[in-house]
Automatic annotation (TrEMBL):
<dbReference type="InterPro" id="IPR013098">
    <property type="entry name" value="Ig_I-set"/>
</dbReference>
<feature type="domain" description="Ig-like">
    <location>
        <begin position="312"/>
        <end position="404"/>
    </location>
</feature>
<keyword id="KW-0812">Transmembrane</keyword>
<dbReference type="InterPro" id="IPR013783">
    <property type="entry name" value="Ig-like_fold"/>
</dbReference>
<dbReference type="InterPro" id="IPR003599">
    <property type="entry name" value="Ig_sub"/>
</dbReference>
<feature type="domain" description="Ig-like">
    <location>
        <begin position="407"/>
        <end position="483"/>
    </location>
</feature>
<keyword id="KW-1133">Transmembrane helix</keyword>
<keyword id="KW-0472">Membrane</keyword>
<feature type="transmembrane region" description="Helical">
    <location>
        <begin position="498"/>
        <end position="521"/>
    </location>
</feature>
<keyword id="KW-0732">Signal</keyword>
<feature type="signal peptide">
    <location>
        <begin position="1"/>
        <end position="21"/>
    </location>
</feature>
<dbReference type="Pfam" id="PF13895">
    <property type="entry name" value="Ig_2"/>
</dbReference>
<dbReference type="Pfam" id="PF07679">
    <property type="entry name" value="I-set"/>
</dbReference>
<dbReference type="InterPro" id="IPR036179">
    <property type="entry name" value="Ig-like_dom_sf"/>
</dbReference>
<protein>
    <recommendedName>
        <fullName>Ig-like domain-containing protein</fullName>
    </recommendedName>
</protein>
<dbReference type="InterPro" id="IPR052598">
    <property type="entry name" value="IgSF_CEA-related"/>
</dbReference>
<dbReference type="InterPro" id="IPR007110">
    <property type="entry name" value="Ig-like_dom"/>
</dbReference>
Amino acid sequence: MDFSNFWVPLLILAALGCCSQDSMLLSDKIKGIIGKNVTFKTTITSTTDFLSITWHFNKDKVVPIITFIPSTNTKNINEKYASRISYNTTTFELQLGPLMKEDEGEYILSTVNLNADQLTGQIHLEVLEPVTDVKISSNLPEAIEFNSTVILTCTAKGSFTYRWLNGSDPLVADGTHTKLNPPIGNELTITEVRRTDLRGPIVCIAENALESGRSAPFNLTVSYGPEKIAVTQTPTDSFLKKGSNLTLSCSADSDPPAQLRWMFNGAELLQNAIVTIPNLEEKHSGNYSCVAYNAKTNRNIVSTVASVTVLEALSGTNISSSTSLLISGNSTVNLTCSAAVGKAESVEWLKGSTPLTPSPRVIFSADKKSLTIVQVGKEDAGEYKCQMKNKVNIDEASYKMVINYGPENVKLDGKKDVKFEEDVKISCSAESVPPSTYTWKLNNTVMNFSQAIYVIEKAKVTDSGTYTCKAINPITKMEKEMTFKLAVTEVGAVDEGLSGGAIAGIVIAVLVAVIIIACIIKRKRKSGTE
Ligand SMILES: *[C@@H]1O[C@H](CO)[C@@H](O)[C@H](O)[C@H]1NC(C)=O
Ligand SMILES: *[C@@H]1O[C@H](CO)[C@@H](O)[C@H](O)[C@H]1NC(C)=O
Ligand SMILES: *[C@@H]1O[C@H](CO)[C@@H](O)[C@H](O)[C@H]1NC(C)=O
Ligand SMILES: *[C@@H]1O[C@H](CO)[C@@H](O)[C@H](O)[C@H]1NC(C)=O
Ligand SMILES: *[C@@H]1O[C@H](CO)[C@@H](O)[C@H](O)[C@H]1NC(C)=O
Ligand SMILES: *[C@@H]1O[C@H](CO)[C@@H](O)[C@H](O)[C@H]1NC(C)=O
Ligand SMILES: *[C@@H]1O[C@H](CO)[C@@H](O)[C@H](O)[C@H]1NC(C)=O
Ligand SMILES: *[C@@H]1O[C@H](CO)[C@@H](O)[C@H](O)[C@H]1NC(C)=O
Ligand SMILES: *[C@@H]1O[C@H](CO)[C@@H](O)[C@H](O)[C@H]1NC(C)=O
Ligand SMILES: *[C@@H]1O[C@H](CO)[C@@H](O)[C@H](O)[C@H]1NC(C)=O
Ligand SMILES: *[C@@H]1O[C@H](CO)[C@@H](O)[C@H](O)[C@H]1NC(C)=O
Ligand SMILES: *[C@@H]1O[C@H](CO)[C@@H](O)[C@H](O)[C@H]1NC(C)=O
């Protein structure tokens, strides 16, 4: 039958709008994508309940797609759609595809039931373009931290809205630092970009209700720095020994890595992160600083200054004395301390381990390198130390001071009264530096003897006499003598134990006693006879 004639009454019906719009369809809106299929679902459970069922397309004019007469199982298909539709004979749901942009519009389902009631349903198809070629582009090929405003634009083919991801999380624009252009949101503006902003990586998602497309992960290197410049000095001391080695190293946080340069007293020394100066000399003393430069950000920073002073270490320190021979009470000594190498900044003198302090007798030169002790005494003898100090080391020398004195306190010791043939030892001693020599005399006659101890074996009476010992200091030439009287008694000459006087006393006492007793007896006899 003639297709156009067949449609006339239905068209009129539709135009009249007489038909009740029951829920013939599951929804009134549907979206499809170019190239894909769309299915218009119905609420019809069985087509046999109807006399006829028709799908139309209404855009500018109403165009029939398919009419189905269930009773005769006849279908009338618009040939323009023939290859693009399929339908379900039970539910009469219609699948259309592949979709074209022109398919967008109203689709009308018109039915006539067995009671000749007309029912229609209407659904709007929106045909979306597929999402392809999602891309992020940047206004800048590279950015500089805090200086650049980066604008990322997301482009895609198709119909969609945009979403952004920062790493795996949704990107949240704060409205000041990061902004998204409303309402589409395909432009992300980052002002004063920070180094971490675009490391995401950033992904743009273009999507519509049916599909979405992701851009390739986008990242942009944001140059930054240099900052946090740090200098290490090895060794860390600011005063260094001549001949030692100095290593200076520099680092800075920067992308791209900073160019590092070392400056010495304001002039460039080396274009390197590490400077090693072996075998330091005085001329290496000065101010070292490191400069970091980032060519991309065009920023420079300068480190703190490392001030270094190279000094010669003190060595060969020695003490020299003005006088080699010192005599107590008579000599004045001048000790001078000097270092063969290096310059001392301070000098310290010690005697033993006690620091020497100035006194009227102990005088230091202005530079403390000379020590004068006026009129030395024996108590000044001992070990003197001079310590030379500078910023890099201490060197010391010692000097043993000998004070010649004496003899003093000369003594002669020994037994004074000895018996015949007894051994006798007479010792002579004196305090003296250096030790004294001795000469002896007996009764003013010089003896052929020069030892400290004079020994007489088996003394004879002729050994008695006055012994004189003279102590002589060979350096000071001073001498002192002492005398000692020795008496040797002859054998049997004296009763052992009692002296002559004592014996005489006893004899007299006994005689007196005898006389008294005799007198008493005589008197008693006289009185007895009367
Ligand atoms: C889309 O519809 C066409 C024609 O009806 C059909 O040949 C094709 O298989 C369908 N594709 C899908 C994915 O359903
Ligand atoms: C038609 O739809 C019904 C119900 O959804 C289903 O059971 C049946 O298999 C469909 N027929 C065809 C040919 O797709
Ligand atoms: C992305 O996230 C990082 C933290 O994970 C943040 O520092 C950065 O600013 C974010 N980027 C943007 C553009 O918001
Ligand atoms: C960032 O992009 C560069 C190329 O532009 C690539 O080589 C690098 O792997 C990317 N990094 C990340 C984390 O995606
Ligand atoms: C200094 O460096 C030289 C090599 O340049 C090395 O031979 C020497 O041992 C170093 N001196 C010190 C104190 O480290
Ligand atoms: C090193 O720096 C100090 C102060 O920072 C300055 O007084 C001195 O003159 C400088 N030395 C040289 C050799 O430039
Ligand atoms: C950073 O911005 C300032 C002005 O805002 C400009 O003068 C300077 O040249 C910029 N730096 C770089 C490296 O582009
Ligand atoms: C140190 O001085 C003494 C004299 O006081 C001298 O004999 C000695 O050689 C000197 N030593 C050096 C290393 O100069
Ligand atoms: C002490 O010094 C004086 C003069 O310097 C000298 O004449 C005298 O002999 C000295 N005395 C001793 C004990 O050396
Ligand atoms: C000690 O000796 C030094 C160097 O020989 C000299 O400069 C100084 O004047 C002397 N001091 C005295 C008190 O003799
Ligand atoms: C002194 O005594 C020594 C031995 O002790 C002897 O050799 C020397 O001849 C003596 N000298 C005199 C002058 O008697
Ligand atoms: C020393 O003199 C005393 C008396 O002055 C005398 O008894 C003695 O024998 C003398 N000794 C010698 C060895 O001459």
